[in-house]
Design a protein that fits this description.
Mean pLDDT: 82
CATH superfamily of the largest domain: Immunoglobulins
Helix content: 25-40%
CATH topology of the largest domain: Immunoglobulin-like
Radius of gyration: 28 Å
CATH architecture of the largest domain: Sandwich
Structural class: alpha+beta
Distance between the termini: 63 Å
Low-confidence stretches: none
Largest sheet: 7 strands, antiparallel
Shape: rod-shaped
Number of strands: 10
Number of domains: 2
């Protein structure tokens, strides 16, 4: 009789332990998938500044312009975010006039990183555009800056999400006051 009761108690103990184990596994799985699920890093252009400008129309048209870009990458994950080499492009009336490299990087969990970059104009493309001279006389040059950042967000090196962030900025450079106005929009895809 005692051997039967012992086996019955052992079976009951194993069943209860199994149920508890399943409940714990389901709880950890839900916690892992909901609370620790990799989220998209937030990438925003914080500022666009006019670092240097030199221009003249006569006797020969000349323009040397350098814009400073400050991009902020916020990683909301409980894991790291690693992004690849990229570039920021500066476009004037549909033509590429400047490129700035964005080096690959690594970002720790739940942190914010600031990336600073300079874009120097390739004035040759501007000087060939006939509308450029009219804009130069008006004192306002309008540019579009685009950048794309591709990377991977991971949690505990198990869950990984591929992320691509595209940022577009409309930039107005006021030559006389050497001021820059910008409006940026960021779209994140995975």
């Amino acid at each position: 009789m005692s051997s039967c009761g012992g086996r019955r108690g052992l079976k009951l103990c194993l069943i209860v332990a199994g149920i508890l184990l399943v409940v714990l596994l389901v709880t950890f799985l839900v916690l892992f998938l909901v609370a620790l699920k990799p989220k998209q890093p937030k990438i925003t252009t914080k500022s666009v500044t006019l670092d240097r400008i030199h221009s003249s129309i006569f006797p020969k048209p000349f323009l040397n312009l350098t814009l400073g870009l400050v991009v902020e990458v916020e990683n909301p994950n409980y894991g790291s975010f690693r992004y690849d080499d990229s570039s920021a492009y500066l476009v004037y009336r549909g033509g590429l006039v400047g490129v700035s490299p964005i080096p690959a990087g690594y970002q720790k969990a739940r942190s914010t990183q600031t990336i600073r970059s300079n874009v120097t104009l390739m004035a040759g493309g501007l000087l060939k555009d006939l509308e450029f001279y009219g804009d130069l006389v008006k004192g306002v040059l309008n540019f579009t800056s685009t950048s794309s950042l591709h990377g991977r967000a991971s949690v505990f090196k198990v869950l990984k999400v591929e992320v691509t962030s595209n940022c577009t900025c409309e930039i107005s450079v006021r030559i006389a006051g050497q001021k820059v106005d910008s409006s940026c929009k960021t779209v994140v895809r995975h």
